[in-house]
Hints:
The protein is mostly helical. It has a single domain (25-309), classed as Ammonium transporter fold. It is built from 15 helices and 2 strands. It has helices at residues 25-47, 49-72, 83-93, 101-113, 129-140, 142-145, 165-172, 178-183, 195-207, 214-231, 235-243, 247-254, 265-285, 292-301, 303-309; strands spanning 2-5, 8-11. Strands 1-2 form a two-stranded antiparallel ribbon. Strand 1 (2-5) and strand 2 form a beta hairpin. Helix 1 runs antiparallel to helix 2 and helix 3 packs parallel to helix 5 (129-140).
Amino acid sequence: MVEQNDNRAVYEVACSPHAREEINTAGIMLDVLIALIPLVLAGFFVFGVAALRQILYAVLSAWVAESLFNWMRGKPFSLKDGSAAITGVILALSLPATAPWYVAVLGAVVGIGIGKAIFGGLGYNLFNPAMVGRAFVMIAFPSLMGASAYVLPNSTVDALTSATPLTLLKMEGVLTGLRALFLGTTNGSIGETSALACLIGGIYLCMRRTASWQIPVAMLGTMAAVSALAVSFNLLDVLRELAAGAALFGAFFIATDPVTSPVTPKGRWVFGVIVGLFVMVLRKLSGYPEGVMFAVLLANAVTPLINRWTIPTPVGGPVPVRK
């Protein structure tokens, strides 16, 4: 922000997220919440009340944790900015509907505490808080987050009585139909089943300029290129790779976090490529069927370096260095 003071320009630089003049942090978070509505509706359609219950657990826990850690740090409550709610919703959407209540609660507390508060609060955190929380519960409760967690034995829908599409492909070589992946009539985490819902919400974020379109384009483009060159040239197989799992959910709602992603235009392209490469490496070479969560966290770790390496050249050329 630039202010005039006694005919001199005074520059004020604030911590991220860097909002446009006509929108503030609360406005950005509201846009994200609106964009998440299609995913919540799709999750409710597929998993029923269990999806809404998981979201409620995570959001309430994130609010309590945010208030508690702010109080411990002597900071005012900041629930009005909506960041805690966003962390709770994204965390819940990344969990299986069958996860017990304490998984969402502990994930939210760890995400807010270790993922954000320990760094100094909103704008100072290096890692995406929701993914920090999910990584914790993934390691702490492997049996509740593993392949068996996505099986719904009481479901009357055949697609929901099996493992996720990526698990079926990795473990049994079974391909899931592209139509089912697009509409969301498959098993998986609450917010990742419907590619259509992710696209609707993601396009809304990009049109509102709340999310940087370069990151999802670079991430998904890299995944498509690696899939075509190293896995299969078949277009349907490439589309299936993008529609399955958390690729679209991660590309639009996780990797584009304005605090933990680069601020430079070139850096966003680099960041998206790194995430896409890590996702494909983890999917194809590791023991995990999915790799979006770890890929984003690994890319978050190098975001400061990406920002430093991709500083734009000022108009008129580089600033002369005094000798």
